[in-house]
Every structure is written in structure tokens, then in C-alpha cells.
């Protein structure tokens, strides 16, 4: 019996966003593209989410109606294509009680199987104290949290050319957010959180050794400066890194191999980010075959781990 293939990382935007004039009628994040590419590559399930990019246009308070519209729309698509689609909600972690109520509604009423957040929202990051109730709720609901970068994070003024915002800026923002979540103690306080980082964590597996030595040398500030504010972790950062999951969206086999050596194949989840990146669906799938995984690990990456997280 062949392994179930689940693409963890595909996007469908709300109808309002699809109609935005900037797309000129060609928004790639549509259910039609998901289903067409799904069939072309031979998937069993596609996990649809709202990338959350356009939420930067909204304050936290003003974002709730847009978030609810997206959650309800994705739930309706799931109902229409149950044999091919699983849907997850979208939320802003520090958004407050209205955001928490909407997430709980989307999970309990619409049966959305997880939640996607952006690694920053208007310079607020998910390690901020005001985001703790969000993570507590996700633990109570027992749903995976999928962190995805915003359209542009920090350093926007240097990323307006050569599509650097997409190719470099987004991984930068995700890596910073993950690093802060680790050292600020998210995984210490919420050890049962099911946390999935997009895009291989933005390169965090390559720099985790630097985070480890910064922690290990925390009592020697002469060269590196002080380690603080107060330390909330009790182990080196790489130990917490192995508590999270990473999707395989990198389009570069050596990067995925680095992640496998760092956290293990059982912490990787197949994804393509297509759509949005429509042309890269087949490449994202083919790269899994290039990794030389044994049958058991390959089955976990292609769908087994995602199936467990989504309770399928």
C-alpha cells in the first residue's frame, strides 16, 4: 500500500482578497488552482489555508470580520471537496478575546483542523506576552499552529527589488520569530503545543548552533554581551527546536537534508506552497524523492505526520 500524500502548504484566499485589483483577475490562491495541481501531482489531500498576507492592511480589531469570512469560506470549500481538501483557520495571536472566540468557533463549529498565523503582524511577534492566551487556547483545542511569514517583515526598505521580500525577507522574518519563541520560553511553558514552521523554519536549522553557544556562554558577557532579559528556558535552544515540525518548502534538497539531520525526518511535513507558487508544485513533490529516505521515513514526511497532527 502506497503512502498517503498530503500537501500541508497550499493557500486559498477569501473571495474579497481574490477580487483585489492588484491581482488583475489572476489571483493564484484559488480552490480551482489547488484542485488542478492536486490532480496533476497525484495527491491524496491538500491542506488549504489563508496565507494571511493581506492582514497587514488591518488593525487587530478590524481584522476579525475578514478572518471570519476567510474561515467560513475555507470551511465551505472543505464541505464541497471533502475527498480532497482539509482546511485550517487563520488568526492573529495577540489579537485579543475576539480573535480567540473566532478561532474557537472555527474549530468547534466549522471543524477547521488547525490555525495559521503570520510570524509578525505590524511589528508584533508571537512571542509577545499578549499572545500567550492564543497558545493556551491552541493547546486546549489540541490543534496544530502553522506559522507562515507575512508578505514583508522587517527590513522592507531593502527588499523592494529582485523579489527579495519573497525569497529572502519572508524566511528572515520566520527565522527571527522562531528564535524568539524558543528563547522566550514558548516551548518551556507550553510543551504540548503542536507547532509547525513553514519554509523549513526560514533557515533556523542552519543557525541553531549559534543559538546554542549563545545560551551556553550566557554567563560570559565579555564578547557577546549579556544574555537576557530573564532566562525562561532550561535547556539549549536546539532541544526546543526538536519539539516543533517543519514543512519541506525550500526547493533545495541539501536544505531539507540539513533539517533532517538537525531535527529528524519524523519532524518534517511535505508541503509545496503551490498555490501561491503555482509553477513549483511538481518540483516541491519531486524533491522528496531526491532525499534518499527509507520507506518508513518517506511515508511519515509525505503524509503520515500530517495525518496525525490533523487527526485524520
Summarize the structure in words.
- By secondary structure, the protein is α/β, with parallel strands linked by helices.
- The chain has a domain at 54-268: TIM Barrel (Alpha-Beta Barrel).
- Helix content is 45%, strand content 11%.
- The strands form 2 sheets. It has a 6-stranded parallel beta sheet with strand order 4-5-6-7-8-9.
- Helix 3 (60-80) links the parallel strand 2 and strand 3.
- Helix 3 runs parallel beside helix 4.
- The relative contact order is 0.14.
Main traits of this protein?
three-stranded parallel sheet, six-stranded parallel sheet, 13 helices, 312 residues, 11% strand, TIM Barrel, alpha/beta
How is the CATH topology of the domain at 54-268 named? TIM Barrel
The parts where pLDDT drops under 50 for at least 5 residues are: none
SS summary, helix count:
13
Q: What is the CATH-assigned architecture of the domain at 54-268?
A: Alpha-Beta Barrel
Helix/strand order: EHHEHEEHEHEHHEHHHEHEHH
Q: CATH superfamily of the domain at 54-268, called what?
A: Metal-dependent hydrolases
Outline? globular
Query: What class would the helix/strand composition place it in?
Result: alpha/beta
Strand content: 5-15%
Helix content: 40-55%
Rg (C-alpha, Å): 19 Å
Indicate the mean pLDDT.
Answer: 92
* Cα distance spanning the termini: 18 Å
The major sheet is characterized as: 6 strands, parallel
Q: Would you report the number of β strands?
A: 9
CATH top level assignment of the domain at 54-268:
Alpha Beta
Amino acid at each position: 500500500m502506497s503512502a498517503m500524500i498530503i500537501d500541508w502548504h497550499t493557500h486559498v484566499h477569501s473571495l474579497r482578497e481574490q477580487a483585489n485589483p492588484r491581482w488583475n483577475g489572476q489571483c493564484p490562491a484559488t480552490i480551482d488552482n489547488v484542485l488542478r495541481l492536486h490532480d496533476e501531482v497525484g495527491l491524496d489531500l491538500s491542506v488549504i489555508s489563508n496565507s494571511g498576507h493581506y492582514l497587514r492592511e488591518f488593525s487587530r480589531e478590524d481584522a476579525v470580520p475578514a478572518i471570519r469570512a476567510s474561515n467560513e469560506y475555507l470551511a465551505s470549500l472543505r464541505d464541497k471537496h471533502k475527498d480532497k481538501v482539509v482546511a485550517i483557520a487563520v488568526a492573529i495571536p495577540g489579537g485579543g478575546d475576539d480573535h480567540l472566540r473566532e478561532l474557537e468557533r472555527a474549530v468547534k463549529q466549522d471543524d477547521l483542523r488547525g490555525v495559521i498565523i503570520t510570524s509578525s503582524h505590524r511589528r508584533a511577534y508571537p512571542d509577545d506576552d499578549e499572545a500567550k492566551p492564543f497558545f493556551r487556547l491552541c493547546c486546549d483545542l489540541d490543534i496544530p499552529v502553522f506559522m507562515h511569514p507575512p508578505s514583508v517583515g522587517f527590513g522592507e526598505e531593502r527588499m523592494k527589488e529582485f523579489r527579495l521580500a519573497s525569497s529572502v525577507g519572508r524566511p528572515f522574518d520566520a527565522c527571527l520569530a522562531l528564535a524568539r519563541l524558543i528563547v522566550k520560553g514558548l516551548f518551556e511553558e507550553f510543551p504540548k503545543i503542536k507547532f509547525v514552521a513553514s519554509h523549513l523554519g526560514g533557515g533556523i536549522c542552519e543557525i541553531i548552533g549559534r543559538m546554542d553557544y549563545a545560551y551556553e556562554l550566557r554567563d560570559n558577557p565579555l564578547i557577546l554581551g549579556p544574555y537576557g532579559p530573564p532566562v525562561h528556558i532550561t535547556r539549549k535552544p536546539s532541544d526546543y527546536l526538536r519539539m516543533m515540525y517543519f514543512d519541506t518548502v525550500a526547493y533545495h534538497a541539501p536544505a531539507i537534508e540539513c533539517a533532517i539531520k538537525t531535527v529528524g525526518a519524523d519532524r518534517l511535513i511535505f508541503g509545496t506552497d503551490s498555490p501561491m507558487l503555482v509553477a513549483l508544485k511538481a518540483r516541491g513533490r519531486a524533491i522528496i524523492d531526491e532525499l534518499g529516505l527509507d520507506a518508513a521515513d518517506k511515508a511519515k514526511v509525505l503524509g503520515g505526520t500530517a495525518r496525525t497532527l490533523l487527526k485524520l
